[in-house]
Amino acid sequence: MSLYLRSRLLWPNIINNFTCRYSTTAPDVIDQNDQVLVDDSDETLAREAEIQKKRNVSRLSNAHFNLINGRRPYETPKHLSHLTVKYNRKLYGKYGSESGVNPSLCWPTKQNIQETLEYESIAFPYTIREAMDAAAQKRLEEKNKIEQREIEIATKFAKLAQWKKELNDKIAKKAAEVELAKNKKERLVEEVRRHFGFTLDPRDERFQEMLAKREKEQKKLEKLAKREAKEKMMIAKLQQKNVEMK
């Protein structure tokens, strides 16, 4: 048999085998191949995940591992605070578009703006110029107060020597009065002892009675002496007045 005849006989079988093996219109073959490809992809992803897990030898939690590597700690909310606007704004400010947060949350709502305006109208009722004028007036008042205080201190410092002299005189007068009272007491005690003519315990009742009597008499004499001195002073003033009138 010639080569030409053999090729003509074998060609239909080759065409049929090629069609059955590589044609895209065979659903059973396509489904099988697709399933194999998908299975290969899942196995690859699982293998990569296992490799990454084994690479993480730090034993950190997923949240801490993500923080160290510059990623948001949680992919899904784990706490009620993670659902708040404040938390999501912080996430967007730190991680940007990778945070998965809608950037519209970063803008205040109309209610927030209205509440802020109401708060500022109450907390800061004055304009900038009014606030500056009030601050300047307050500084001026404080300056005047300091100057007035310095003047008072200087005035008092100038009188310091006089006050010291007056204080020393007052202390000396008080000491003299104490010394005089002490001497008077000793003199009365000595008079009481001479009255009895013998040594007597000052704590004795008779001694105390006589001492009280002597003190009373002494007070009368002092009072009388003061009255006489006052009368003499008045007479001297009257005489001086008469002399002036003449």
From TrEMBL:
Keyword Coiled coil annotated: yes
Domain of life, per lineage: Eukaryota
InterPro entries per record: Ribosomal_mL64, Ribosomal_mL64_sf
Subcellular location field: Mitochondrion; Nucleus
Major site of localization recorded for this protein: mitochondrion
Keywords: Cell cycle, Coiled coil, Mitochondrion, Nucleus, Ribonucleoprotein, Ribosomal protein
Pfam families tied to this protein: CR6_interact
Coiled-coil residues: 164-241
Family assignment from sequence similarity: Belongs to the mitochondrion-specific ribosomal protein mL64 family.
Function: Acts as a negative regulator of G1 to S cell cycle phase progression by inhibiting cyclin-dependent kinases. Inhibitory effects are additive with GADD45 proteins but also occur in the absence of GADD45 proteins. Acts as a repressor of the orphan nuclear receptor NR4A1 by inhibiting AB domain-mediated transcriptional activity. May be involved in the hormone-mediated regulation of NR4A1 transcriptional activity. May play a role in mitochondrial protein synthesis.
Protein name per its UniProtKB record: Large ribosomal subunit protein mL64
Lineage: Eukaryota, Metazoa, Ecdysozoa, Arthropoda, Hexapoda
